[in-house]
Amino acid sequence: MLRAVLSFANGIRIACMDAPLDPRKRCDRAIVTHAHSDHVRRHKRWVTTPGTALLCARRWNAADLEVHEFHAPWREGEATVTLLPAGHILGSAMVLVESRGLRFLYTGDFRLRPSATAEPCEPIDADVLITECTFGEPRYRFPERAAVVDDLCTFVEETLAQEAAPILIAYSLGKAQEVARIMGDLWYRVALHPRAWAMLEAYRDLGVAFTNCECYAMGPLARGVLIVPPGPGGMALAHRFRRRRTAFLSGWALAPPGRFGRYDAAFPISDHADWSELLEMVERVRPRRIYTLHGADTFAARLRARGYDAWPAGADAPSVPPAESAQLSLL
Ligand SMILES: [Zn+2]
To answer: Quick one: which of 21, 25, 55, 102 is 20 to 30 A from 322 by CA?
Structure first.
């Protein structure tokens, strides 16, 4: 049974290989898809891309790093493992595992639309797709990025016209650097919270160029924007500005009204796939079975309604797989 080969008890384990993928508990050796906290634990040895390795070293003090370039396969137990760009944040990877004639693709967090700072995502055929589904509801269809950036610039201009500080609330790794690059290239002066600035410097060291960006030093903003992370540290800095307007930058801007009422505005700028991209990933991978994680179980149900053999990771798969998955059941 496929169940015996795939386990979701602690991250993703594939029986034919040694290292788990994105385990939630500390391991001696683990494959880490990217440097966000919900995918990272303090492992003894970190197996990842050069970009994620550097980010994990700076952000999480990762020391024992086993680095594999994108597209460079290696042997892992009985399996062959290859990291492919996921398009989520700089260095983020999907993991392709090939074993016993089957191909497993774990997306980690991914995005198909172009990013200002991350490597473009590279979907590939696989028999089993293990996909994130953070925004796996039809309401999460993100508008074109250029239109959202236009709206954001209008918010910034209106705020500056009111002699208030435009404060952009963006996660300190990934989103903050992407927004800093977009706004800096539009000739806004961009100041960043020190935690976001530290990651911007890491991005720079990995070859991403930024213009008009600086670490926030106390005092007024000079006709520009301030980027702070959500949470107490970022908001403490924001609250130093008596006259301010805050904008939350996240795909959750499309969540039901009221969820982010504490901000003055919200813009759907995300580093995740939206509903359409999640469906496109399935179409491009052409899997015979799909497992979903990092989102609502309803996404798997919606895929089943479209004819896919899709199940939430961790839930019980059908005891008798459908005919088209017969080869999987032989494992
Ligand atoms: Zn992430």
So the answer is: 21
